[in-house]
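User: Hi! Is it possible to get a structure for several chains at once, not just one? Here's what I have:
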Amino acid sequence: MNPVTQQKPADQAIAADAPAMRADARRNREKVLKAGRKCLADDGFDAQMEDIARRAKVGVGTVYRHFPTKDALVDALAAERFKGLTEKAREALDNPDPWVGFAEFMHYSASVQANDRALSEIMGARPETMREAADGSGLFEPVSKLIAKAQKAGSLRRDVVPEDVPLLMCGLARAPRGGSKGPESNWERYLGIVLDGLRAPAITKLPPPRA
Amino acid sequence: MNPVTQQKPADQAIAADAPAMRADARRNREKVLKAGRKCLADDGFDAQMEDIARRAKVGVGTVYRHFPTKDALVDALAAERFKGLTEKAREALDNPDPWVGFAEFMHYSASVQANDRALSEIMGARPETMREAADGSGLFEPVSKLIAKAQKAGSLRRDVVPEDVPLLMCGLARAPRGGSKGPESNWERYLGIVLDGLRAPAITKLPPPRA
DNA sequence: ACATAATCGGAACCTGAGTTCCGATTCCGG
DNA sequence: CCGGAATCGGAACTCAGGTTCCGATTATGT
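Assistant: Yes, the chains can be modeled jointly so their relative placement is included. Here is the combined structure:
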């Protein structure tokens, strides 16, 4: 209504680098991030802002000063995790054995999700957020190379395409919490099965990927 | 406070068979069930009671008369689905080729989940409900036999145990909604990979299953 | 057709959780 | 050491969505 009403910058986190952010502010920002990591990892998206604030020993208001929205906080932390994935994918590219590199990446990816419920929820139920975070961290490129390399070496089945990766990671995302409740689950068994399914030569013929 | 306060029968659906339920009541019950199926399939657990009521052309009160709680309704419908799975597993046992029978069961399981968001959410995020529904429908037994048979025939890897099935189904649950949003996703590709991973002989050694 | 009781419908209520607001507090340059 | 500005904290607000309530409606036995 008011002509000067300004939109909230659509969910972005408040700049962390700010030319001159007061020292206590930066300190609190870190505390919020750390608390957020822990709470979101434990309770997933259900984690409550108040819990995060309490754990950070800070008022809710402070949390909101740094992250205008719960989603903003979640996104920020998701971005962190994806950066980690991307880094790992790059490292894996250096592995002399392309298959081992690929497998290591998958293992890392699964284990991260097993320890971070929020991440696994994003992977499994929020394609939007996931796409953004993945793009933002440039995950696609190293993963594509990883796949191409392993296929050229003849160890990865020929019919998987880079676009399958989100799908695979989603499956992995779900598995961790499958049967039992403990954070320690049987995800490594599941991963083992999927990896064997990804080896060359393929037996089951896959339908063509849908855009 | 009042000494005669009576507890709500802990989430059970109201008996459907009732000795003498009024005809319109039974009719409405059906309408609610049908609407519930559709809404839950589309929106998962987020489906709203009012939407269900509206779709059933009925008031919310009526929904609550038949199902004292949203969970009760969800449970009731989950039970239906699990009954279907169990039936399919029994049929699969009759297949002359144990591997084909097993694969068919997995395919059915995945496709049901691809078309029912609520079911896939239960599989992926509510071990409790899932366990109950599975036990209630006796799913475990035919599945165990299916596995044993396929292993004896030498087509299914030796190191999978019946307890892995929930895990596998969870992964399948997640995959459907992986990358894209459309109800039609690439789940069949994912299933193909997992099936190949389940074939004998195993390559990757799986860690022992955790209770 | 009538009485009675079960059933219906949907407005109103309640709770939980994200978000806003503003007086109190803390930082930092002069 | 001071003053102003940025930051903090947490009470209060808002809103969505599950659940309850009760007068109106409708089915069923006689």
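The two ends of chain B are 43 Å apart (CA to CA). Residues 1-9, 179-183 of chain B have pLDDT under 50 and may be disordered.

User: Great, thank you!
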